[in-house]
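Postdoc handover notes: sequence design on the structure in folder B. Input tokens:
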């Protein structure tokens, strides 16, 4: 795994209002959600602009009528280079490695992937990928409903026979004062940080249903949490067939 290969990402910083028409973002419609994943690290000096872009996309919430579901995924291979990222997990590093195999690339930060199969190189690529995804209907319909504050009903219908169902908890508005490493002395702000990830199971005969027990950790702030389920080919490293996100239930 290469730890110092960086994406030229300056063009992504212009995306505060990236919409198909250049107008104000439209509210989500019945179009399929678009999943945007950023592999990042607090130890990487090239990552803060990408982190800001992810926060902009989270705040924008939709693109041409499609809901934007964003995941800030912190890898752990930077932790040995001067600063330990408190949000980094080896599960996320493994997820990025699986993507690298599927996309025939190498892991690097920051890396932006749209809908599990499009690797973004610059701002134009991102806008093009979002426009393309917004026009497509994903085959899986994902429903999320709280039966209690600690139990989430997950339903998936009409998915591919080899699809896997994945669960993520993300948290917004997180801040770190970095004391060392490439970002030493910088205060970083994060959105949609993945705090937990689970493999729920595989789709069987086109459907999947589960009553998912959800337990919040003491350092999570309920009002900042999103609960995300995605349905993905190739055991979680291929095109995303469907997705949904909900807020925590009070």
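Designed sequence:
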């Amino acid at each position: 795994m290469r730890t110092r290969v960086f994406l030229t990402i300056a063009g992504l910083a212009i995306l505060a209002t990236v919409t198909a028409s250049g107008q104000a973002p439209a509210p989500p419609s019945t179009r399929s959600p678009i999943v945007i994943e950023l592999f990042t690290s607090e130890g990487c000096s090239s990552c803060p602009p990408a982190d800001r872009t992810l926060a902009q996309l989270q705040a924008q919430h939709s693109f041409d009528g499609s809901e934007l579901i964003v995941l800030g995924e912190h890898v752990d291979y930077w932790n040995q280079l001067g600063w330990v990222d408190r949000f980094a997990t080896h599960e996320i590093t493994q997820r990025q490695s699986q993507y690298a195999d599927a996309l025939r690339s190498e892991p690097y930060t920051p890396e932006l992937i749209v809908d599990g199969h499009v690797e973004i190189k610059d701002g134009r690529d991102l806008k093009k990928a979002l426009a393309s995804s917004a026009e497509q209907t994903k085959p899986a319909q994902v429903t999320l409903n709280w039966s209690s504050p600690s139990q989430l009903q997950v339903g998936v219908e009409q998915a591919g026979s080899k699809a896997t169902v994945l669960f993520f908890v993300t948290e917004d508005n997180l801040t770190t004062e970095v004391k060392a490493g490439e970002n030493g002395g910088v205060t970083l702000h994060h959105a949609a940080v993945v705090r937990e990830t689970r493999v729920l199971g595989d789709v069987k005969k086109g459907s999947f249903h589960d009553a998912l027990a959800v337990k919040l950790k003491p350092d999570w702030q309920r009002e900042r949490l999103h609960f995300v389920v995605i349905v993905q080919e190739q055991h979680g490293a291929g095109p995303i067939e469907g997705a949904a996100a909900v807020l925590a239930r009070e």
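Context for whoever picks this up: The helical segments are 47-60, 90-103, 123-134. Don't rerun without checking with the PI first.
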